[in-house]
Design goal:
- The protein has eleven helices and four strands; from the N terminus they run H-H-H-E-E-H-E-E-H-H-H-H-H-H-H.
- With 391 residues, it is mostly helical.
- A two-stranded antiparallel ribbon has the order 1-2.
- Strand 1 (104-107) and strand 2 (113-116) form a beta hairpin.
- The longest helix is centred in the N-terminal third of the chain and has 26 residues, at 2-27.
- It is globular.
Length: 391
């Protein structure tokens, strides 16, 4: 009894500590001069409290060991909790950087060996103090010239900018750098595109087991991504570099109809009022942050799908930080099914190796943000079909 009580107390204290630290991060980046010492210490402005930029960021933004819940502004699960068969914990819309350290291997019945290395699961930030290393495959950003050896949190986020409010009334969305942004570690690589317009609900780091966390993306996300991935900008259907994205990729009437009707494989009985899923988000084609703030919900109170103003963007299919899948995808794009025989594929539930791909059922479910498999067809194919209805 006493031992159990002490264990419960420790868990509660860990949770409260994580919650308070997350709340503290929300009040941070306000532009106050007394905040400087939290990153720079007592030394000169050029010194950092971590060995590098990302290590300094992760001092506050990595979850403490033992944190078993998604909380606040944590964007990475602690290394001590990344055990074999256990998924990362944090569920921000951008994804958990812990997936960069999750390697999966499997062998199919015919003897073929497959793998999904952590390196391919997202943006490979460099944070030496926490074991995050540069991308060993791509020396520069695909489609651009940004060196992977200096990729860090501040490559995208301006730590000295003021954070936006929940209504997007001031500051840049997620402190993303705008035109002219050029961290000291990347001189000569100044951004040429403005930060995107978007609004997120306040409590966005959460399980989506019951309702989606809807970030209301307005406009400019893919254009902003082109600061580093230049060749993606302005894609047309014939562009050899990939899927059309951005303002040039307005959803066609057919795609809008497919999105709004698609419920799951074999079920096209949906409607525009309830069709939204955060696994396939879209831009609304507006910079009206007041209107967007009315759409940024976590309680399922706004689930309307796209209309003629909407467009596909990079984050329609990918997460900004990392995910459980290759290329930081929102779902597994390299397996035939995301649900197999009514279950999420797992090496521990008898699913074929080419479907489970080395993951446990719990890992697959967590990478889909805890959604019940019952939401989908018994044999659910990939969510490209949300727009293209080809399954």
């Amino acid at each position: 009894m006493m031992h159990g009580s002490r264990s419960t107390a420790v868990i509660v204290l860990l949770f409260l500590g994580a919650l308070l630290q997350g709340q503290g991060a929300y009040a941070f980046h306000s532009g106050r001069s007394d905040e400087c010492k939290e990153c720079h210490g007592a030394g000169s402005a050029s010194s950092l409290r971590g060995s590098d930029e990302s290590s300094t960021c992760l001092r506050c933004h990595m979850a403490p060991a033992g944190a078993r819940w998604p909380v606040g502004y944590y964007i990475a699960t602690n290394d001590r909790d990344l055990r074999k068969g256990m998924p990362p914990v944090q569920l921000t819309p951008g994804g958990d950087f812990g997936y960069l350290k999750k390697d999966y291997v499997w062998t199919s019945p015919d003897g073929r060996r497959g793998s999904s290395s952590g390196e391919r699961h997202g943006h490979n930030i460099v944070a030496i103090d926490y074991g995050y290393e540069p991308d060993k495959t791509n020396m520069t950003a695909p489609g651009g010239a940004y060196p992977s050896s200096i990729l860090s949190c501040v490559s995208c986020h301006d730590p000295h900018a003021k954070i936006a409010t929940d209504t997007g009334a001031r500051g840049a969305y997620r402190l993303l750098g705008g035109v002219g942004y050029e961290p000291s570690s990347a001189r000569g690589l100044a951004f040429t595109r403005e930060a995107p317009v978007a609004v997120a609900p306040h409590d966005y780091n959460r399980s989506e087991a019951s309702t989606d966390t809807r970030v209301a993306y307005g406009k400019g996300m893919s254009e902003w991504c082109s600061n580093c991935h230049a060749r993606i900008e302005g894609n047309s259907a014939a562009d050899k570099y990939g899927h059309p994205v951005g303002a040039y990729a307005r959803l066609t009437a057919e795609v809008i109809s497919n999105y709004n009707a698609y419920v799951k494989s074999g079920d096209l009985t949906g409607n525009a009022g309830t069709s939204y899923t955060s696994l396939v988000p879209f831009e609304e084609g507006t910079d009206d942050t007041v209107a967007l703030s009315q759409h940024a919900k976590k309680d399922g109170s706004y689930t309307r799908g796209p209309d003629f103003r909407s467009n596909v963007m990079c984050l329609t299919c990918h997460r900004a930080h990392a995910s459980g899948w290759d290329t930081s995808a929102r779902w597994n794009m390299t397996a035939d099914f995301i649900v197999y025989k009514g279950m999420y594929p797992g090496a521990d539930n008898g699913s074929p190796a080419e479907q489970a791909q080395g993951r446990t059922e719990a890992e697959t479910k967590r990478a889909l943000y805890d959604r019940p498999s019952a939401l989908y067809a018994t044999y659910q194919r990939g969510l490209c079909n949300k727009c293209h209805a080809a399954d």
